[in-house]
Amino acid sequence: MTQSQTTSAGSAIPRRTALASLGLGAASLGGLSTAFAVDHHGNRNGDPKMSPEMVGWDPSDGRYVLPPLPYRYDDLEPHIDAETMRLHHSVHHASYVRGLNTALQQLKEVREGDRDSDQVRAITRDLAFNGAGHFLHVLFWNTMSPSGGGKPDGELAEKIKVDFGSFDKFTAHYKAAAGQVQGSGWAILSYEPTSAQLVIHIAEKHQDFLLPGAVPLLPIDVWEHAYYLKYQNRRGEYIDAFMKVINWDFVSRHYVGVRDLLEVHA
Ligand code: MN3
Fold first, then answer.
1. In CATH, what class is 1-266?
2. Residue 143 reports pLDDT greater than 50
3. Ligand 1 center from residue 134 Cα (angstroms)
4. Residue 141 Cα, ligand 1 centroid: separation in angstroms?
5. Measured in angstroms, how far is the CA atom of residue 215 from the centroid of ligand 1?
6. Omega of the bond leading into 78 within 30 degrees of 0 (cis)
7. β-strands 185-192, 63-64: how paired?
8. Chain Cα centroid distance, residue 2
9. What is the CA(145)–ligand 1 centre distance, in A?
10. Measured distance CA(197)–CA(191) in Å, rounded
11. H helix runs in the chain, sequence order
12. Are 12 and 34 in contact (CB under 8 A)?
């Protein structure tokens, strides 16, 4: 976080500061929010601004909110079915937003002496689970589009070629990671700023085995709630379907924004 605070545009600082004050400064999570702040405030690459509501935060009362999807529930048919999208967004994601706000409120109650401090560990586990769940889902929705699929172009395409050998090698690695997540979790393409390299990693549940410092660019949700209605146990078919709705324009802009914001080498 320190690095990004010293290198970022001043316009992005208020949002990051607000998140940091809520205790969400762990690099992999704060970095995600920081990256969105580029879109929201920075207008990089001529991006349209994203409202705070679109990134899942209501500054008017300082609470996280369920962001609207950038498309309708049935827009990703036939790849991702409408009923899965409706439940996934309005029930599952909404529960993470509630859990995140609740955990932060409970920690405040501990600080103010209204709740037993012995509960800090349990509440903090809830904070990690629900916070990671919220941030990953916000990004996940934005990385899909009815007009998605295909391949990236421009700087991300070149970076994938350099770091993974080719787009096909990236795809094979990414799909293998998603297919091999044990239980509920995610495979994530992230940008690791220390080495200035892309990396594919996994998260079990939402929060376990994240790589601190690596900023998620393209997460695929492989919890059963993301695909079971349509694909049952055929996770591989769901992964193939997801590849057909990836919004590479968004992921490419997100990559450039994150890379420039977190630049650590001259
Ligand atoms: Mn999910």
1. alpha beta
2. yes
3. 9
4. 10
5. 18
6. yes
7. unpaired
8. 20
9. 17
10. 6
11. 2-7, 13-21, 27-37, 82-87, 94-111, 120-142, 154-164, 167-180, 228-231, 235-243, 248-261
12. yes
Q: What is the distance of C-alpha 143 from the center of its chain?
A: 9
171-193 pLDDT, tens digit each: 999 999 999 999 999 999 999 99
User: Residue 29, Cα to own-chain centre: how many angstroms?
Assistant: 8
Nearest to 27 by CA among 59, 2, 64, 53: 2
Percentages (nearest 5) of helix, strand, coil residues in the chain: 55, 10, 30
Q: Is 191 helix (H, G, I), strand (E, B) or coil?
A: strand
Mean pLDDT across the chain: 85
Map out the domains of the chain as residue ranges. Answer: 1-266
Find, among 18, 124, 26, the residue nearest to 64 by Cα: 18
For residue 221, the CA-to-ligand 1 centroid distance in Å is 6
Distance 229 CA to ligand 1 centre (A): 13
In the predicted model, what is the mean pLDDT of residues 70-96?
98
The whole-angstrom separation of Cα 131 and Cα 63 is 12
* Size (the chain), residues: 266
Cβ neighbours, 10 Å, residue 266: 3
Alpha-carbon distance of 97 to 65, in angstroms, equals 6
